[in-house]
Amino acid sequence: MFKVLVSDPISDMGIQQLHDAPDITVDKKTGLTEDELVAIIGDYDALLVRSQTKVTERIMQAGSKLKVVGRAGVGVDNIDLEAATKRGIVVINAPDGNTIATCELTFAMMMAIARQIPQAYKKTVGGEWDRKTFVGVELRNKTLGVVGMGRIGSEVAKRAKAFGMNVIGYDPFLSEERAEKMGVKLGSVNDIAAQADFITVHTPLTNETRGIIGKDQFAIMKKGVRIINCARGGIVDEKALIDAIDSGIVAGAAFDVFVEEPPAPDHPFLNNPKIIVTPHLGASTVEAQENVAIDVSEEVLHILRDEPFKNAVNMPPVPASVLNILQPYFNLGEKLGRIAGQMADGAVKEIHVSYSGELMDVDVSPLTRYIVKGVLTNHLAGEVNIVNAMHLAKNRDVNVVIQKSAAAQTFKNLVTVTLKTKNGDRTLSGTLLSGYGERIVQIDQYPVDISPEGTLLLVSHNDKPGIIGRVGTLLGNNDVNIASMQVGRKVVGGSAIMLLTIDKQASDEVLAELTKLPEIMNVKELAL
Ligand SMILES: NC(=O)c1ccc[n+]([C@@H]2O[C@H](COP(=O)([O-])OP(=O)(O)OC[C@H]3O[C@@H](n4cnc5c(N)ncnc54)[C@H](O)[C@@H]3O)[C@@H](O)[C@H]2O)c1
Ligand SMILES: O=C(O)CC[C@@H](O)C(=O)O
After folding, report:
1. Which residues form a coiled coil (predicted)?
2. Which of 75, 142, 196, 480 ranks highest by number of CB atoms within 10 Å?
């Protein structure tokens, strides 16, 4: 049974599938302090948050069973990603569910500052009938500058076109073709600053985007420009904005987000008649909250149940087309890694993975993670998983080298794992055979054909008559049944290997007796 803690207000309807799951129990405890969370998190396998809970390193350290932190929303700036990755905790978000809600708030803000609706409302309910002060501007024929043309920025641009606006977009990942398709002109941040009547930002807050709209940009803006920030506090420099309002450059601004949330009561935005504010409401629609909770719950279920998932923030995304090709190999890859890890003699310096056949044409890095996980699993204390495998390898100076070699001749696909230690290399190749499933087809230089299942016994010996019989007899006498056996040799009478699948583990004594048999050099039991 898995335990999930929901520590922020997340839509009950959205997390219904967690309540319904027979293997999950859900506790909802909102408004906890860091200390209170630290005290209870050790009981939980998953933590679900919005933006209020700060998921710190201390919390993750106390979360000894924690496998996943789910963020019902886009931004993960409230989660210590590095700490999560180090511990192999998967961080997932729900990037799509609140796009439209935030886009629509952005538009509402733009129209509200164009027509000063909040200011007019305030006066009107205060008993004044002021029709002179509130003369607004139209959106039609105005230029909207969009900094950050991802999910939300693109939706904003689309709606702006419907309002008859000209749109200039800036995004390092926006291609000319895509921009053209959307009817958006590409420009730099300074082009936007110089030409736009309205500027809206839709980037994450990073070192590059902090203050991307700052003093230098306000200095070149048209008089009467209006600014909107429904992304993250700090993307528009707050102090520079106040200065630009005071100097008459900016006619109005709308902010949903602040550098510090909630802003202090004396924050200059809170009593400036040209600035309207909302308390981080971008994602606050019934639909968005349901969407993000559904998405994040689905992913949490996948992760807890060890099923493939797609929205991990601390792992590179895998497109569905690539996942479809790679997924059947994940199990095989991990097994090859596990077996190779047990075969290696001494500290592994390099994990060399070679892919051929149909694996040549796809990004194989997700599969490499499974292999590296397999190699490290029997060697490291603590959780090793596909999130922290590469990080753990790097931290231990284990080089991971990926090679793609020309299309496999014999097999439609082939994965070869070589582990390099100071005592030499050990190599293992595996494939997926249609109708037969996973097969190990080579160990070191020896061709074999065996299914990687149960317990394997790898015996290195000299190819002399009677050896196979002696090994079989010794195992049989000790009640160890052999399910399958393969012998690999390069030349008659030379060195050889025997690979056996046995129905139960052989005891240390049996392994020691096997090692003592004549012509046997080495015996290794390999657990999968
Ligand atoms: N107010 C809210 O409640 C609310 C709700 C949802 C999202 N958000 C925030 O809105 C922002 C955008 O969300 P999204 O879902 O569109 O994200 P997204 O990842 O789809 O888009 C972000 C875009 O910013 C671009 N970008 C990154 N660095 C840039 C730079 N230096 N200059 C220009 N562009 C840059 C990226 O290429 C990307 O296209 C995020 O900060 C998110 O946290 C706020
Ligand atoms: O949870 C929220 O309401 C905020 C969501 C928003 O900031 C996000 O980044 O998804």
Report:
1. none
2. 196
Q: Give the contacts of 433 (CB within 8 A, at least 6 positions apart).
A: 411, 439
Q: How far apart are the first and last CA of the chain?
A: 24
| Residue 228 vs residues 95, 200, 474: alpha-carbon distances, Å | 21, 5, 79
Residue 260, class by beta-carbon neighbours within 10 Å (0-12 exposed, 13-18 middle, 19+ buried)? Answer: exposed
Torsion on CA atoms 296, 297, 300, 302, rounded to nearest 10: -110
Closest listed residue to residue 200, CA positions, set 235, 172, 165, 174: 235
For residues 486 and 418, state if they share a domain.
Answer: no
C-beta pairs of 407-411 under 8 Å, 24+ apart in sequence: 407/356, 407/357, 407/360, 408/356, 408/357, 410/441, 411/356, 411/357, 411/441
Q: Are residues 383 and 238 in the same domain?
A: no
CATH code, domain with 481: 3.30.70.260
Whether residue 485 is contained in a domain is answered as yes
* 51 CB near ligand 2 (under 6 Å): yes
How many separate domains does the chain show?
A: 4
Could you tell me what percentage of the chain is helix, strand and coil, using 3-state DSSP and rounding each to the nearest 5?
35, 25, 40
Q: Assess whether 280 carries a catalytic annotation.
A: yes
For the segment 367-385, what is each residue's pLDDT rounded down to a tens digit? 999 999 999 987 776 678 8
Range of the structural domain that residue 343 is part of: 318-451
In this structure, what DSSP letter does residue 435 have? T
* 309 is a domain residue: no
484, 446: one domain: no
Q: What was the pLDDT predicted at 314?
A: 87
Same domain, 56 and 79: yes
**Of the candidates 28, 159, 48, which has an alpha carbon nearest to the alpha carbon of residue 106?**
159
Sequence-distant (≥ 6) Cβ neighbours of residue 410 within 8 angstroms: 441
Q: What is the ipTM of this complex?
A: 0.99
Q: Do 151 and 250 fall within a single domain?
A: yes
Residues 436 and 458 reside in one and the same domain: no
Hey, which residues does 497 pair with through a beta bridge?
460, 488
Mutate to test the pocket of ligand 2, among 54, 280, 286, 295 (most ligand atoms within 8 A of CB): 280
How far is residue 316's CA from residue 72's CA, in Å, rounded to a whole number? 19
> Residue ranges of the chain with pLDDT lower than 50?
none
The length of the chain is: 528
CA of 33 to the centre of ligand 1 (A): 28
Q: Which atom of ligand 2 is nearest to the CA of 102?
A: 6
Phi, psi of 8 (to 5 degrees): -135, 165
Give, as one character, the DSSP assignment of residue 358: G
Backbone angles phi, psi at 358, to 5 degrees: -65, -15
**CB-CB contact of 210 with 235 (8 Å):** yes
Which of 128, 208, 261, 287 is catalytic? The answer is 261
| CA 109/CA 153 separation, integer angstroms | 14
CA dist 497 and 458 (Å) reads: 7
- pTM across the whole model: 0.76
Cβ atoms of residues 384 and 88 within 8 Å: yes
The verdict on 152 and 224 lying in the same domain is yes
